[in-house]
Structure formats: C-alpha cells, structure tokens
Write the structure tokens for this entry.
Amino acid sequence: MPESNQDIKRFFKQTLKLRHLRTIAMLAEMGQVSRVAQELNVTQPAVSKQIGEIERALKISIVQRQGNRIVLTPVGERLATHAREIVQQIERAEFDVDALHRGLGGRVVVGVVTSIAPTLLPEAIRLLKITAPPAVVSVVEGHFNQLLPMLESGGLDLLIARVWEPVYREGIEQATLLREPILLVAGVQHPLAGRQEIEWKDAVAWPWISPAAGSLARQGIDAFLARSGLAFPPGHVESTSLPLNIELMRISPFISLMPQWLARHHAGKGDLTILPLQLEGVLSEARCYWRKESSNATSNLFRECLEQASRQARFAPL
C-alpha cells in the first residue's frame, strides 16, 4: 500500500480528534484563526497547532494564507464538508440526550418578526417536539416595537427579531442566533431583473414594499439609504405578509428586502429574482431576547432548540 494511503488511514483511525473537526469546520466558516480561537474559546496558537497536527498527519496542506485570511485547499474543503456534518450530528446527539433526560413539557410563548419565522422556527419547533413531545408552542408574529413590551410584561417567554443597532432593556437578556445578509428582491419580470450591476438610485426609482414606519427594520433601511443621500420612494406599500409581498412582486414592479436564506429559497422556486444589491451589515443579525428572572424550563429548552437550529442554518450550504 502506498505510504500516502497509509498516512490517511492512520490519521482517520488514530490521530483525528473532535477538536480537529471543530477547528476545520469553523475555519471554513470564518476564514481567520483569531475568529476561530474566539469562537472555540481557545488561544490562536492552539488553533494553529491543531491545523499543524492535521497537516503533518496527512502530509498535505489543508490551508493557505491570502492576506490575513485562511483559505482552504481542495483537501481542506472536502475535510471541512465532512467535519461540519459530524459536528452537527454530535451536537444534536448531545442536545437530544440532555433534553430527553430532563423530560420537559409545559408551554412556551414566542414572539417573532416575520422575516425570521421561516428561517429558524420550523427546525427549532421540530427539535422541541422530538425532545419534549408534551410541550406546547404558541407563536405570535409582529414588529419588534410591538413585541418587546409583551416580553417585558410576561406575555411572551422569548422574542426573536432582527436588529440594526443594539437594543438593551433592564432585566432583559439577549443572545445572537444568526447572521446573514439582507438582499434586494423583485419579481422575475421586473425591468431590473437580470442586470449584472445596479445602483441604489436605480432601485429607489421603483415602488417598494416596506416594513412599517417606525419599526426597527424601517429605521435601519432609512438610515442606510440616508447615508447615500437617498430616501424611500413615495407611494410604497407597508406589509410584512410574505404571501402578499410575493404576489405583489409577481404582478407589479415592486422591490422588497429579504434575508438571504428566504430570498434564495424563493428565487430557487422561481417566485422571485435577487437583485445585485444588499444592505451591508444592516438587519443582518437575528437575536433572541428573554427575561432575566424567567424560570420557565420549557422556554429555556426552546432557546436551546433555537441555538441548535441556528448552528445548523449557519453550516448549511448556500
């Protein structure tokens, strides 16, 4: 047997550890040793050491540097693909065993903004029903400014929303669930569809479907456009109804904004087209909020389900 084949077999049977898999999976996602070290709560030399262990065992490079970023080689990319799958399975196994051990039921009331609901909630609810079948989930959709007072008063156990600037309240805890860009979308027959380059002044020349005036989402978009000396077009439609928005874009030249996952999902179905513009850094972060003094065990379990669903969404291929 060639020596290279023996090296590979020895690596997978004797050398490979879970820490190697976590490191290569995070490298594929983040591309920087410093960010991987922060995410895994280890030092940068520890991350570099694990990369070196893999490369010495395989006798082949798995990464190469491009400026201050790490780029995976073809072997590194293939290893990262399998690493992500294995890490997800191990995390799910840990989650399932722990939740089943606790045997929780009860009820959790979740407030959510419309753009987040299709991305994280279905998988989070599925995980909850597997691990705690008696549990009841009640979902309330609305704007962040409507839902936050309900959370503070105890009407909601959890609130999931996109943010464009930090929002802090006394007695409210929060955690980041997901980061993804916001894309510009339109109907497939829109005059801008198919163009390789578009400027924001081109986009605001057409009617838009807008979040409600005064909402966090609208504030974020207004601030973004204002930095370019632009404003929301007059005569826009304010709507958070996904079916209505898609139908409006199908029959009229409306433009709207969608999170990347949702935009690509509907573009893949042929419902919409993605225009070559995005809100850089605006509304790209989804967070979960809950009351600090909450003792609802089912709510705590559902928050873990959300975190698990967000990890799966983060590692899912685009």
User: Anything to note?
Assistant: The longest strand covers residues 172-179. The mean pLDDT is 84.
